[in-house]
Amino acid sequence: MTTTQRLTLSQALVKHLAALKVEMHDGSIQPYCGGVFTIFGHGNVAGFGEALWAERKALPTYRAHNEQGMAHAAIAYSKAQFRQRIMAVTSSIGPGATNMVTAAALAHVNRLPVLLLPGDTFTSRAPDPVLQQIEDFSQGDLSANDCFRPVTRYFDRITAPQQILRALPRAIEVMTDPAACGPVCLALPQDIQAQAFDCPESFLQPEVLRFRRPPADAYALARAAGLLRTARQPLIVAGGGVLYSQAWDELRDFAQAHGIPVVESQAGKSSLPWDHPLNLGAVGVTGSPAANAMARDADVVLAIGTRLQDFTTGSHSLFAGAKLLSLNVNSMDAAKWQGVALVADAKVGLTQLGAAIGEWTASADWTARARDLASRWEARVTELTIAVPQEVLPYDAEVIGAVRDSLNDNGGDSGQHDVVVCAAGTLPAELHKLWRASGPGNYHMEYGFSCMGYEIAGGLGVKMARPAQEVIVMVGDGSYMMMNSEIASSVMLGQKLIIVVLDNRGYGCIQRLQLATGNPRFNNMLDDCVPEGGAPSNIDFALHARSMGAHAVHVADVAELKAAMVAARAATRTQVIVIDTTHTRTTEDGGCWWEVAIPEVSARQQVRAAHAQSVEAKNAQRF
């Protein structure tokens, strides 16, 4: 006979999450759900809130200040845990729910798990329309939560409490599936949250989760090995899948054994230590000259765990002449560009591929060239990042060097200890090239969705996942203005961040793109946006951060930044350091073409010229 407990839907869901454990890749057993972020409203406080309070010791609840921000924090938590653990987020039914849609899209693009639990309208429809309810006069069952359908990997609206017995395990299966991994949404109508049913005890005692590591098919493995053995000038592109599989040791051993240089996507950066002699660094539009030079000359590219996004591939032009071999756990990603697909877990697949190719190695000249370029680029990074500007504002590279060396001055390795967090603007390009990450996951960049406002909230999630490390959020003034309220959350929760705000007074990155495509300065820099009768923007970011409980200073130059960083490292609560920077200087080394749609017809000669250049560049694209 099945033993049951009389529970509400919310109670059953929360008890299941609280009891659920996962076997990590290192063999340890941990709680699968690290906690629940919430902002309560009338759509979740009575039903779901009661269940969270009862299980607060086993499943912590964290209050946030913005629904999008708390979802970003939850997503960053999972990314920092290499997708092995999650956090859940719950909101009310209207703007609280739709505020999370952007975060869901971010998680979808980046293949990151998060459990979204928005409240929903009444299934009984007795009180319709309730506060914040969307009414559609052609679809009676539509609600705001239907916005989640295209931006989640699994969506379900629970219309009877018993449905949670099927829906929640399905959602967890998606989040733990190495190929299908992504955000899931269980919409919880208000009345159903509070309805009771006879919940089987077995649901409240779930089995320990264990991750699958699918091996390669024998035929596909033989085909992949055959292609790789034909190469004289092979190149490895390391993507985020290397980190999620925790295949960094296998990557290092494979590259060393076969003499293959490695380049890193934004998601894959930190797969190899920055000073590994075969690590050429960042590749693509934001790539190093060393990586991009080798990419142009490669005859076979082994893409491991990468989506082959346009920034990684130079809009499919950078290594268009090479044969492509894609090792990816996701068959759709592996099949891109009509290359040779090797569908497998990165860790297992690299081991299998290494055994299949035996003692084959790349051309000795090719490997020697890679080592030489990597060494020269390493020296150039030092040169760029230790420069001290004289009588001009610093730019991102000089700030990055000061942040990094603030630990080196104390005898530490910032690349090993620090986790740098960023997402959008100019900083991703500079950090991709110049940040030195010694440990896996110590470079945390959200560049799949390039979502302004992710940075500070994401930093909070990273700190909760990695409390022993210093989490440094580097953010421009534009992104800071988009979303900064989780500074207050970090103070409230005792999760110390170091936030470095680079104030270039506007959207400097987009203005440079605007000018490069032949357009005039327009609507990007703050000083260009003051209409008649308006007033220039003069925001005191340090004062603003202090108002939310952080310790904050505005430094005058790079020397003061270094000193402030040393003090910030010694502090115990969130620190904000603001420095004025310029958008007119950037690191010119590296980079490659990126396709941007430029008008065919324009009154401006500069636009017509930019369009002609783009048409010419498209001839190098791979299809």
What does this structure look like?
With 623 residues, the chain is of the alpha/beta class. It has three domains: 4-210, 3-Layer(aba) Sandwich (Rossmann fold), CATH 3.40.50; 218-376, TPP-binding domain (Rossmann fold); 386-580, Rossmann fold (3-Layer(aba) Sandwich). It contains 25 helices and 23 strands. Helix 18 links the parallel strand 18 (418-422) and strand 19. The longest helix is centred in the middle third of the chain and has 22 residues, at 364-385. The mean pLDDT is 96.
The tally of beta strands, per DSSP, is 23
Indicate the CATH topology of the largest domain.
Rossmann fold
Give start-end ranges of low-pLDDT stretches: none
Indicate the proportion of strand residues. 15-25%
Which structural class fits the helix and strand makeup?
Answer: alpha/beta
Q: Any idea what the CATH superfamily of the largest domain is called?
A: Thiamin diphosphate (ThDP)-binding fold, Pyr/PP domains
CATH class of the largest domain: Alpha Beta
Overall pLDDT: 96
Distance between the termini: 60 Å
> Based on the structure given, which CATH architecture of the largest domain is correct?
3-Layer(aba) Sandwich
- The total count of helices amounts to 25
- The gyration radius over C-alpha positions equals 25 Å
